[in-house]
Amino acid sequence: xxxxxxxxxxxxxxxxxxxxxxxxxxxxxxxxxxxxxxxxxxxxxxxxxxxxxxxxxxxxxxxxxxxxxxxxxxxxxxxxxxxxxxxxxxxxxxxxxxxxxxxxxxxxxxxxxxxxxxxxxxxxxxxxxxxxxxxxxxxxxxxxxxxxxxxxxxxxxxxxxxxxxxxxxxxxxxxxxxxxxxxxxxxxxxxxxxxxxxxxxxxxxxxxxxxxxxxxxxxxxxxxxxxxxxxxxx
Length: 234
Prior knowledge:
Layout: E1 10-17, H1 23-40, E2 44-51, E3 60-67, H2 70-80, H3 87-100, E4 103-111, H4 118-123, E5 130-138, H5 143-160, E6 163-171, E7 177-184, H6 189-194, H7 204-212, E8 217-227
Antiparallel strand pairs: 1-3, 1-4, 2-3, 2-8, 4-6, 5-7, 5-8, 6-7
Helix pairs in contact: 1-3, 5-7
Protein name: NIPSNAP family protein
InterPro entries: Dimeric_a/b-barrel
């Protein structure tokens, strides 16, 4: 079952397919309209990434906002709704996306038990200029189990090969989804310096992980994402 930890923050995850738009235009309008509106409503920008061409759907942008509780989510929803305090900028943003023919998907997520908050990551000068996003389908109800085993078996090896664990997030209203983020040391240089991650046979910890993971998951899709200028962890 899902476990809700007292310290856990919520995250609003948006995937936007840009349609006829481009990243430059999106970034400008995002900075002029959407970001100020969300900041006024108490949402903290956690990340803005674009999908890179060779691994993922593009042109596509991923936006993540950090909020404290569902009360903040309710306040944002009320403010953007008809008659709300921020109805006008919300409609302007929606109209812009409509003009592009943009499509998207939204998720409400909560952080894994050992995730660091945006403030903690910034205090550590944690860089996430280039990341791997893994959208994982777990066995029903096994999200927490999957994250626990990932941290025990996979994270130490991953970080030794240039892929630092940024965090794992559980989609609140889905019963079988976890999203992981890995920040790549040196951005693109990580592929030159660390890939392939093993050249002959996998190390013992990966063999163990490969024996455990299939019992907890059904599949996944990964993408390589690059930070856009507004992203605070760039």
